[in-house]
Amino acid sequence: MSVHVPVMTAEVLAALQPERGGLYVDCTVGLGGHALALLAAGATRVIGIDRDGDALVRAAEVLADWSDRVELVHSDYRDAPRVLADRGIETIDGAVADLGVSSLQLDGVGRGFSFQRDEALDMRMDTSQGPTAADLISRVSEQDLANVIYTYGEERRSRAVARAIVAARHAAPIRTTAQLAGIVRRVVGRSGRIDPATRTFQAIRVWVNGELTGLDVFLRAVCARLRAGARFAVVTFHSLEDRPVKHTFRALAKEDASLRLWTKKSIVPGEDELRSNPRARSARLRAIERAG
Ligand code: SAH
Questions:
Q1: Which residues touch 37 (CB under 8 Å, ≥6 apart)?
Q2: Per-residue confidence at 3, pLDDT binned at 50, 70, 90?
Q3: For residues 43 and 18, is the Cβ–Cβ distance under 8 A?
Q4: How far, in Å, is the centroid of ligand 1 from the Cα of 155?
Q5: Under a CB-based contact definition with an 8 Å cutoff, are residues 53 and 74 in contact?
Q6: Closest residue CA from atom 5 of ligand 1
Q7: In which order are the strands placed within the sheet that holds 92-98?
Q8: Ligand 1 centre and the CA of 238: distance in Å?
Q9: What was the pLDDT predicted at 220?
Q10: I need a labelling partner for 61 at 20 to 30 A (CA). Which of 197, 243, 248, 273 fits?
Q11: Residue 150 — left, alpha, or beta (φ > 0 → left; ψ -120 to 50 → alpha)?
């Protein structure tokens, strides 16, 4: 079973100060790592949201000792305003969002996120709804696919990759991770240590899950609910995610006199964490606070 080590936990705790008690929202509760740290440090109540039902099962196990203080909600974090409204919650004492994929998704059997293993090309974080990667790839136009691979994967050879995928799908439907990885590797030669399929897999994953859509609206919605003295910490894993967080936080700090950047520049993990947790490698944390 894959172990998910939460990223930048010390920094998240330093930002959120759960020892003050209060209600915290973990917008991406995942396997419960950050939520557990918040509770152990003193948070009175945690609402943990995730769109991945499998993750919530694991989070419930991890948080079993704290079940009277936690509520786990199967939802998209972009629906956080409704999740809070349904519970009559108007303001919160802090929030965290740890964007991207969990190790359960990346390494989990049958999820189809990884080219390390041959399985059905699914890639949905929420397996209860929406088209799979295989479905989308079977019907997208070459032009749109090239744009996805360029924009979300920053793959310079996006057009050639899209052309090869469309040509291959005429011959036989692309249903597995190994098929897709094979097509990409034949087009994009290996340079350096990273697998040439990495960027295309990232792009398709971001596309399937609409990962960058509505991020700004979500960030604004959470900030609108921060109580005086409350902070919102966001951990990102690539520049495509970090950029909108940086821009939205900066814009909010200009528009709203009571909001200010708690991190002027993004914070990165310390040496020890980088050495011990490979998932931390590209992590950055930004936090915003409402003046207390
Ligand atoms: N902080 C967690 C790990 C989070 S990994 C821990 O310590 O265990 C990122 C999680 O975000 C994944 O479980 C993924 O399903 C979830 N996620 C990504 N996009 C989401 C969205 N739009 N809505 C809700 N959850 C999302």
A1: 6, 9, 12, 13, 18
A2: low
A3: yes
A4: 25
A5: yes
A6: 102
A7: 70-74, 45-50, 23-26, 92-98, 226-236, 284-290, 259-261
A8: 15
A9: 98
A10: 273
A11: alpha
User: Which band of pLDDT confidence, cut at 50, 70 and 90, is reported for residue 278?
Assistant: confident
- 107 has pLDDT over 90: no
Please count the residues of the chain.
292
Q: Which helix (H) or strand (E) holds 260?
A: strand 259-261
244 is written with which tokens? 């909108």
* Buried-state track 232-270, b at ≥16 Cβ within 10 A, e below 16: bbbbbbbebbbebbbebbeebbeeeeebeebbeebbebe
Cβ of 72 closer than 6 Å to ligand 1, yes or no, is no
pLDDT (average), residues 132-150: 98
The amino acid occupying position 151 is T
Give the CA distances from residue 281 to residues 53, 104, 195, 265, in Å, rounded to whole numbers and listed in that order.
26, 17, 17, 17
100 in ligand 1 pocket by Cβ < 6 Å? yes
Residue 18 amino acid letter: P
Look up the pTM and report it: 0.96
Give me the chain's average pLDDT, please.
Answer: 96
Q: Are 46 and 69 in contact (CB under 8 A)?
A: yes
For every residue of 12-51, DSSP letters joined together read HHHHH-GGG--EEEETT-TTSHHHHHHHHTT-SEEEEEES
Q: Which token pair is 256?
A: 């709203």
Q: Tell me how far the alpha carbon of residue 100 lies from the centroid of ligand 1, in angstroms.
A: 6
Torsional sign, CA 191, 194, 200, 206: negative
Q: From CA 187, how far away is CA 16, in angstroms rounded?
A: 46
